[in-house]
Amino acid sequence: MPVKLSGSCHCGAVKFTVESSTPVPYQLCLCSICRKVGGVMGAINLGGHSNTLKVEGKEHLSVYKAVMNRDTPQQHIASSERNFCSKCSSMLWLYDSQWPELIHPFASAIDSPELKDPETMVCIKLNSKPAYVRLPEGKKETYEDYAPWSLEEWHKKNNQFVA
């Protein structure tokens, strides 16, 4: 049975629940988008089943579609949508129509249950990390770009997948 995640924004205007089979916050993304919208240390996304998302306060949601390859000839708008509270700017979840069955709540928005502390933190997109950003303490794996597995694959490989 998937885990029911309950989350909210900082000001409480938006509250949501979603069921997750991949609820362990093991992967820290240090790309420029995650750092600029989520804070200097980046963001940790979880996985959720989009058809289970329930939202209170939808009128306070706004969406940001990231600019990819900014200031280059390859600049374009991402297909992914980062949903955030229009009142307090808390990042809540990411949705991408390329994978309509999935939604990716930000671990920072989850209120309950208390999320597991992963044995190893996977740090991705180091090729985007500025020198002043320090990696978290403790056991970690680092990747210049993306890790070689999806959220689901990592959870299955580490016996953390909740069907």
Automatic annotation (TrEMBL):
Keyword Zinc: yes
Record domain CENP-V/GFA: where: 5-144
One Pfam entry name: GFA
Keywords: Lyase, Metal-binding, Zinc
Molecular functions per Gene Ontology: carbon-sulfur lyase activity; metal ion binding
Family label: Belongs to the Gfa family.
Protein's recorded name: Glutathione-dependent formaldehyde-activating
